[in-house]
Design brief:
Layout (H helix, E strand, L loop, with lengths): L1 H17 L10 H5 L16 E6 L2 E6 L15 E6 L18
Antiparallel strand pairs: 1-2, 2-3
Amino acid sequence: SIVLYNLEAALHVYAIRNGCFPTTEEGLEELVAKKIMKLIPADMWKNAIVYQVQSETLCTIKSLGADGKEGGEGVDRDLMLEVTRSRTDRPLSSVHDISTSD
């Protein structure tokens, strides 16, 4: 789903800027709060996207399908995308300009 891939890109921007993913409690709404997205899109069936942090370097975003419930087959099938980041990702504030020398 294009919605999941757009959210993946936004989560990578957030992680680069902040050094981590938003917490599960903050949710995808943190992408709006940090002005990375204007709004959090629903899936193609107008259901909310499910977001959960699995670890420091992994989170999942999921559409629950047409029925909006876990599991299912056909159009009711869940679509999940795992979003990973490198442990070496640093927030932008830690990037230093090395083009100037003494």
